[in-house]
Design goal:
About 35% of the residues lie in helices and about 20% in strands. It is an alpha+beta fold and about 650 residues long.
Length: about 650
C-alpha cells in the first residue's frame, strides 16, 4: 500500500475543555448493543477479516455438530446483494421455551450473548466455540438475518435486524429432516466493504474439511452467472492435508506419517512428511481452531518427534555418542507437519485463541505420537532411513553454519565492525526517522547519493545480483560480500543473534530499475528479507520504491506517470489543451534520471510513492518463494504459463 511519511502532532489534553463525569455519563448497553458499539471486541475488526468472521461463526456451529457426530453436510451459499446462507444437517437449534428467558430457545441463542450449548452438559463434548457469542454477534452486525430450523418434524423460522427481533418464531410447514439454516447480510453501517471474497472462503473451508474428515462441505457462489460450486470431503484427514501442503515440493520419503489415538479423553491426530526444502511448516489446531502461536499440543508433538528419532537412530547405529544427538532444530528442517486435538475443555490464551494452554494436551499428544510413530518407523524402514539421514545432514549443516556465524558475526564483533565503505549513511541516529535506500549499481547509487536528504536518508549500492538465499545455508550466505555489507548496515545481526531492537533504520527501501533485471534483484532481496529477516517485514520496515515509468513533456510542462494507465491519462489531459509536440520518455533505469528528478519523483517524502511490504498469508508467501526461487523448474514453468497473460511492461 502507498504510505506517506508526514507526522502530525497530537493535541495536548490540557488544551481541551474540562468534561463532565456524572451519572448521566454512564451508559448501560442492553441486549446486543455492546456488540454494535464495539464490534472489534467480538470479531477482531470491521475490515475484511471481521466481515468474513461472520461466516466463520455460523459455519463453526455446523462444524461443531459434525464433530459431535450429528452432521455430515454443510453448505455455504454466496447470494446476490451480499447475502450468505449457511446450512447444516445437524440436530437443529432447539425451539421450545427456554426455562430461564421464558422465550423460544432459538430466539435466546440468537439474541442473547453468552447463550449456547457449549458451557456445560452433554450437547457438545468438543467445540470450537467457547464464549457462546457466535451467532448472536452475527445477529447484531447484520441488517438482515433469518434463522430456519428443521426439528421435530416441522420447519421453524425467525427474522432479525441489527440485533432486534423482527418476527416471532413461526412454523412454516412440515419437515422430514433436521438441521439449521442461517441467512444474513452484513450491516453497511458497521462494515465499509460488504462483498465476500470467494478465495478466502474456499481456503478456510478446505482447511476445515481436512480437519473434519468424511464431512462434505459445499461452497456455491450464486452472485454471478454462471454459478460456481466447490465441494470438499477428505477421507484421509490430516494425511491428505500434508499432501496438499507439499504438493509443489519434492518429498524426502514416499509415505506420509499419520497417527491417531485417544489418551486422557483427548483425541489426537498427527501427520507429517519431509521434503528437500529447508523451511519448517508446523500447523496446530485445537477443536478445529488454528492455533497460530502453538501451545502445549505442539510442544508435545515436537518432544515426541525428537525423542523417537534419536532413539531410532541410536538403536540402528545411525548415531554414535550423546554429542551427536539430534536437536529439535535438526528435526524441524524440511519438516511439514500438523497436529490436531479434540479436547473437552480447551484453555486458550487470549481472545484470539492463538495458543492452547492445557497441560494435559502435551501429555496426550506425546503418548499418541510416540506409539504411532514408533510403529510407523518399524513398518517403513526406508522412510525411517530417509528421515534420519535428512535430520543428520541438517545437524551437520547447522554446526557448520554456527561455526561460520560465530567467525563472521560472533557476539561483540558486530558492533565493532566498521560500516561498509560504500554506505552513504545519514546524519540522524534516530532509527524511527532514518531511511536506508538499497539500490542496484554504482550509477544509481551515485544519483541517489546526490538526490537524497543527507539528514535522514542513507544509500547502500549493491554490485550486481545478490546470492539467491532460497537454497543456500547461512554459512554460504555469510560468504557473500554484498549480503554481509547489508547485514552490517542494518545493524540487526542475523539468525540466532538477530535483534530487531538494534535496527538502524525503520524504513528500508528497495529501489531498483523498472526492468526485468531490477525486478529480479528486488525478488532476490525480498527472498533474503523473508527468509532471514522476517520480523523486519512483520514490523512494517520494508518498502519498495516506485520510480516513474514515463516522463511526458509538452513545451515547458513536465508530468511523470507511474503506470501505463497513468501515462494515457496524462497524455489525454495534455491533448485536451491542444498542446502541440508531446515527447514521452520511458525510464528503464534510475541512472537515466538526474538527481533532481530522482528526488522529485522517488525520494521526496512529499511526492514519492512507497509500497509497504506485508505478509497477509505467510503460507502462501512461502509457497510463492519456493516456486519462484527454488530449484524445481516445473512448478515455476507452470506458474509462468498461468500468469503469462497478466504481464505488463515486459522488456524484450
Amino acid at each position: 500500500m502507498a504510505k506517506k511519511n508526514n507526522l502530525q502532532k497530537e493535541g495536548s489534553p490540557t488544551s481541551e475543555k474540562k468534561s463532565s463525569y456524572t451519572a448521566k455519563d454512564i451508559y448501560v448497553l442492553e441486549g446486543l448493543d455492546p456488540v454494535r458499539k464495539r464490534p472489534g471486541m467480538y470479531i477482531g475488526s470491521t475490515g475484511p477479516d471481521g466481515l468474513h468472521h461472520l461466516i466463520w461463526e455460523v459455519f463453526d456451529n455446523g462444524l461443531d455438530e459434525a464433530m459431535a457426530g450429528y452432521a455430515k453436510n454443510i453448505e455455504i451459499v454466496l447470494m446476490p446483494e451480499n447475502k450468505v446462507k449457511v446450512t447444516d444437517d445437524g440436530r437443529g437449534i432447539p425451539v421450545e421455551k427456554h426455562p430461564q428467558t421464558k422465550k423460544s430457545t432459538l430466539e435466546t441463542v440468537v439474541t442473547v450473548l453468552h447463550a449456547g450449548g457449549k458451557f456445560g452438559g452433554e450437547a457438545y463434548k468438543v467445540s470450537g466455540g467457547l464464549h457462546g457469542v457466535g451467532i448472536s454477534v452475527v445477529c447484531a452486525l447484520t441488517d438482515y438475518m433469518r434463522a430456519e430450523v428443521c426439528r421435530d418434524g416441522f420447519l421453524h423460522f425467525q427474522e432479525y435486524s441489527r440485533g432486534k427481533v423482527k418476527t416471532p418464531v413461526k412454523k412454516a410447514g412440515k419437515c422430514d429432516k433436521t438441521g439449521t439454516a442461517i441467512t444474513f447480510s452484513p450491516d453497511s453501517q458497521i462494515f465499509s466493504e460488504t462483498r465476500f471474497d470467494e478465495k478466502r472462503i474456499l481456503k478456510h473451508v478446505r482447511q476445515q474439511a481436512y480437519l473434519t474428515k468424511n464431512v462434505k462441505i459445499v461452497v456455491r457462489d450464486e452472485r454471478e452467472k454462471p454459478e460456481k460450486s466447490y465441494g470438499f470431503c477428505f477421507e484421509g484427514g490430516l494425511a491428505s492435508y500434508i499432501k496438499y501442503l507439499i504438493r509443489s515440493q519434492v518429498p524426502r520419503h514416499p509415505n506420509v506419517y499419520y497417527g491417531v489415538g485417544e489418551k486422557m479423553g483427548i483425541l489426537v491426530e498427527a501427520a507429517f512428511q519431509y521434503t528437500d526444502e529447508y523451511e519448517c511448516v508446523e500447523e496446530s489446531f485445537a477443536n478445529n481452531i488454528y492455533t497460530g502461536e502453538g501451545g502445549t499440543h505442539l510442544t508435545g508433538f515436537r518432544t515426541a518427534l525428537t525423542r523417537l528419532f534419536n532413539d531410532y537412530a541410536k538403536k540402528n547405529g545411525l548415531l554414535k555418542g550423546a554429542e551427536d544427538n539430534l536437536s529439535g532444530e535438526d528435526v524441524r528442517e524440511g519438516f511439514t507437519g500438523a497436529i490436531s486435538v479434540k479436547i473437552r475443555e480447551p484453555q486458550f490464551e487470549g481472545q484470539t485463541k492463538a495458543k492452547l494452554g492445557n497441560p494435559e494436551a502435551k501429555t496426550a499428544v506425546e503418548a499418541v505420537v510416540s506409539e504411532t510413530l514408533a510403529d510407523f518407523l518399524e513398518r517403513n524402514p526406508q522412510d525411517a532411513k530417509a528421515i534420519i539421514e535428512k535430520c543428520i545432514l541438517s545437524s551437520k549443516a547447522r554446526k557448520a553454519a554456527r561455526a561460520a556465524r560465530e567467525t563472521v558475526l560472533r557476539k561483540g564483533i558486530l558492533e565493532g565492525l566498521a560500516l561498509p565503505g560504500k554506505l552513504a549513511d545519514c546524519s540522524s541516529r534516530e532509527p524511527s526517522e532514518s531511511e536506508l535506500y538499497i539500490v542496484e549499481g554504482e550509477s544509481a547509487g551515485g544519483s541517489g547519493k546526490q538526490a537524497r536528504d543527507r539528514r535522514f536518508q542513507a544509500i547502500l549500492p549493491l554490485r550486481g545480483k545478490i546470492l539467491n538465499v532460497e537454497r543456500a545455508r547461512l554459512d554460504k550466505i555469510l560468504d557473500s560480500k554484498e549480503i554481509k555489507s547489508l547485514i552490517i548496515a542494518l545493524g540487526t545481526a542475523v539468525a540466532e543473534d538477530f535483534n530487531i531492537e538494534k535496527a538502524r533504520y525503520h524504513r528500508i527501501i528497495i529501489m531498483t530499475d523498472a526492468d526485468v533485471d531490477g525486478s529480479h534483484i528486488r525478488t532476490l532481496l525480498l527472498t533474503l528479507f523473508y527468509r532471514h529477516f522476517k520480523p523486519l517485514i512483520e514490523s512494517g520496515y520494508i518498502y519498495i520504491a516506485q520510480p516513474p515509468l514515463y516522463r511526458v513533456q509538452a513545451g515547458k510542462r513536465v508530468e511523470y506517470a507511474y503506470t501505463e494507465e497513468g501515462k494515457e491519462e496524462v497524455m489525454a489531459a495534455i491533448k485536451k489543451e491542444k498542446t502541440i509536440g508531446i515527447s514521452v520518455q520511458r525510464y528503464k533505469g534510475l541512472g537515466e534520471m538526474n538527481p533532481a528528478q530522482l528526488w522529485e519523483t522517488t525520494m521526496n517524502p512529499e511526492n514519492r510513492l512507497l509500497l509497504q511490504v506485508t505478509i497477509d498469508d505467510a503460507r502462501e508467501a512461502d509457497k510463492i518463494f519456493d516456486i519462484l526461487m527454488g530449484n524445481e523448474v516445473m512448478p515455476r514453468k507452470k506458474f509462468i504459463q498461468i500468469h503469462a497473460k497478466k504481464v505488463k511492461n515486459l522488456d524484450v
